[in-house]
Amino acid sequence: MIFAEHRDKTFPIGLDIGFNAIRMIQVAQGEEGYYVRAADEVRCDGEPGTDVEQRDALAVEAIRQMLARSDFRRREAVSCLPNDALKIKSLRLDTIDPPRIRQFIHDEVAHHFGLDDDRDEIRYLIAGNVHQGDEIKNEVIFFGTDHVTVERHLALLDRSGLTPVSLDAIPCALFRSFQVSHRRQEDRQLVSVFVDVGSLYTTVIIGRGSEVAFIKQIPIAGRQLNEDVAAALGISVAEAGLMRVKLQMGGSESVDPATCQAIIDAMSRTIEDLAREVALCFRYYAVTFRGQRPEEMIFSGREAREVTLLNALRRHLAVDIRLAQPLRGFDLSRVDLGRAEQDELNEWAVAVGLSIKGQELVPCRV
After folding, report:
1. How many other β-carbons are positioned within 10 Å of the β-carbon of residue 168?
2. pLDDT tens string 140-172
3. Residue 343 and residue 324: Cα distance in Å, rounded?
4. β-pairing, 9-17 with 211-218?
């Protein structure tokens, strides 16, 4: 087995530095298919306002621990910048000429966000043609961040003992990981809505087959829900988070009925606000890309099991909802991810998407 594994193709480490956890995963390809060579995570309870240098130091220590205790091969890594460090905006342009698009992005949009074309990182992707009245325009998605953020992130990787081979954006990593579960040939033309509900942001991605058509970051997520519950019950935000996790994992039977109802009532307004924002994304796509209607909504992230949110979205949208399975079709026998079911691995979506960046995965049989 060891001799055979030396012939396998090992992908870079996918590093996801999140608000509440740091995850590392390394995917490989052998004669019998794809497998996870190594995976590890360190949970951390981030608090808003924590000093940036302190957070970076904690991340460095966590990464070093995982490298020391897990079977990661080589030290090349693909990582991503945090959501709050990235500017994302959908644009509708009159031109389809690449040089003119680039000039507008660099001269107008970057300036709007206070970014310097010579120093900062500015990228974009073309989502496709859209109809606006009788006119056809070009939908473009802008990504930008400042050079200080990038340099600090690269320094963090260097201190951790990792060699960066690429930096990515969370929405792109998420979409790439969702494609893992759409590797069957019959899935290639699906229009799907992907929603990652984290601690600080909810990321909505709409894709057509293998192409991203829409991205939106909504500043409503788990942290706000915890704050709502904490205020209603007179407890700390950390205690509220633990209580919500207990309710999600154990159902209403795990918490006394009065407390359960109090938690649901406390979250109701924020959940309705978030559900409406997601529904607006859904409708924007339907109007913009007059084509095939999305057939499903796939959830990932720390808050993906929030039943109250899923039920609210079912009320707003007539669409199937399921949890992401970013490791569907991968052999997991070499790692212990500590989860009983595939659905419970949805929090690994970003890390998986990072590890497989630049790799052409063949259609899966499952």
Report:
1. 20
2. 999 999 999 999 999 999 999 999 999 999 999
3. 7
4. unpaired
Instruction: Identify the three-state secondary structure at position 292.
Output: coil
pLDDT digits (tens, 9 = 90+) for 299-322: 888 888 888 888 888 888 878 888
SS3 47: coil
Owner of token pair 């109250």: 308
Cα–Cα distance, 179 to 189 (Å, whole number): 11
Question: What single-letter DSSP state applies at residue 119?
Answer: T
Distance CA 86, CA 124 (A): 12
Work out the widest C-alpha separation in the chain, in whole angstroms. Answer: 62
Tokens matching residue 349: 């979506």
Domains in the chain, start-ordered, CATH in brackets? Answer: 2-82+148-185+325-355 (3.30.420.40), 85-145 (3.30.1490), 186-323 (3.30.420.40)
Q: Is 133 left (phi over 0), alpha (psi -120 to 50) or beta?
A: left
